[in-house]
Amino acid sequence: MQLLRSIISRTPLRGLWTYRGFIFGSVKREFKAKYGNAVLGAAWTVLNPLAMILVYTIIFSRIMHSRLPGVDSTYGYSIYLCAGILTWGLFAEIMNRGQNMFLENANLIKKISFPRICLPLIVVLNSSLNFAIIFGLFIFFLIFSGNFPGLVFFSFIPIIVLEVIFAISLAMIVGILNVFFRDVGQFAGIVIQFWFWLTPIVYPASILPDSVRQLLVYNPMAQIIQSYQTILVNGEQPVWLNLLPTLLLSIFICILAIYLFRKRAGEMVDEL
Prior knowledge:
Order of helices and strands: HHHHHHHHHHHHH
Largest sheet: none
Number of domains: 1
Distance between the termini: 33 Å
Structural class: mainly alpha
Helix content: over 70%
């Protein structure tokens, strides 16, 4: 604990509040840049995910009549799929943005004096904004289809916090390494693609052989995604003990990310 306090106290975390205008201004500019020149503007943030949810629902529930083992709901597999893909999308977006955040803001870093720790926070806020819009639509779908899990739904809050901490901590490490070794970003993109298919998102873990299913305990995202699916599909509390290894790993990666950031912040400016 003393080491953690020492690391945090010597980082520019305290400057985040001072530069809150810069942070929220950056989030607003990116949102406008993404949709400002489109005819429908920000409406695309609603239309794209809405189309995806409708496609999954119609194809898997109505056309293919896909069923999830042990789940009677007509929309069971569609909810399972959306719960996995939407929450994985948050992780993937933070990773993809985070691994290039220092390179993409090289001119800003060189010309303007501001706490560099603002950049990971901007990544988290941008990704979370997109996720909130998409997931909000998914919630409406759950309500109108009669599949909203009730009060147990709010159990997803600590899980999403855990996911964001894990994702941005890992993204910071990859982002720092990517400044010095540009192949790291390319390699990370490949790893994320394989990671997606090694996580029970489009298939239930129950169809895997026992020997393979036991390996999922070493996949931190598998535990997170399965917790979301347990809440949204079964309407049950996740097995919190299963998330303990992911929590401990996230704390370790977070400390490591802050340590590397402290050590390499000055050198990164010369490499950019």
